[in-house]
Design goal:
Radius of gyration: 19 Å
Largest sheet: 6 strands, mixed
Number of strands: 10
Shape: globular
Order of helices and strands: HEHEEEEHEHEHHEEEH
Distance between the termini: 34 Å
Strand content: 15-25%
């Protein structure tokens, strides 16, 4: 608010002083797998890394997370997000997909020991193909479109919802999903076993068969950094 003038957005040209810089391992697959591992689960992240991904691969292995379905793509960088966070936890993000655009090279196959899947933001082709592959393999899965939701039109989103077992979105994504499909949240919830709409500090709405239940949020001891909180929540 101190540096962006609303009346000058059409000629936006700003420079931010970033007093601290930190590089973390992130990404939806890694974040969710990390949370699942902490909770005693056995995650199988399916993702792609670039030729610069050796450190990430080693980190997953040291955490006891299987890298069986993590593919290295030569001549590409691992997906990276540069995120600036202000004192009020507002964020501006620049995202480079890199090797993620080849995520469709990975294929979901039926396995007796796989009980649940999740499709989170990924390459566009990968999200569509993996949804169809989960359904074909008889593996129930969560559709979590997140920031990838704008890549799909209404018909494509309707197909992904109908293939899914559960859907989870935040309140903004929920409105966009309704706008694009033409379905209300109540109608969406009748097409899956459960629809969850997260509301940040206000908890979440759990929709089942057209009925809504509001679940309050746990009060945090401190708010340190919002980055990755959604993935941690989905892991749980």
């Amino acid at each position: 608010a101190d540096q962006i003038l609303p009346e000058q957005l059409h000629i936006l040209n700003v420079s931010f002083l970033v007093p601290s810089l930190r590089r973390d391992f992130g990404g939806c697959a890694g974040n969710i797998a990390f949370s699942l591992r902490l909770l005693g689960g056995t995650p199988l992240p399916m993702a792609t890394l670039g030729s610069d991904g050796a450190d990430y691969l080693l980190r997953l292995q040291r955490l006891g997370v299987s890298t069986e379905y993590v593919r290295e793509v030569p001549d590409a960088h691992t997906a990276q997000a540069m995120i600036m966070t202000d004192c009020d936890n507002n964020q501006i993000t620049a995202f480079h997909p890199g090797a993620m655009m080849q995520a469709h090279l990975n294929r979901v196959v039926a396995r007796d020991d796989v009980k649940l899947g999740i499709i989170s933001p990924d390459g566009r082709d990968a999200m569509q193909q993996h949804a169809a592959q989960f359904a074909q393999a008889g593996i129930p899965f969560v559709f979590d479109p997140g920031q990838a939701l704008p890549m799909f039109d209404g018909a494509e989103l309707a197909t992904l919802v109908e293939l899914a077992t559960w859907v989870t979105v935040n309140d903004y994504e929920g409105r966009m999903l309704c706008d694009r499909t033409g379905w209300t949240l109540e109608q969406l919830s009748r097409k899956v076993k459960g629809l969850i709409v997260t509301l940040g500090a206000h908890g979440c709405e759990v929709w089942q068969d057209g009925n809504k239940e509001t679940v309050a949020a746990v009060t945090p001891a401190a708010v340190v950094d919002p980055t990755g909180c959604g993935d941690a929540w989905r892991g749980a």
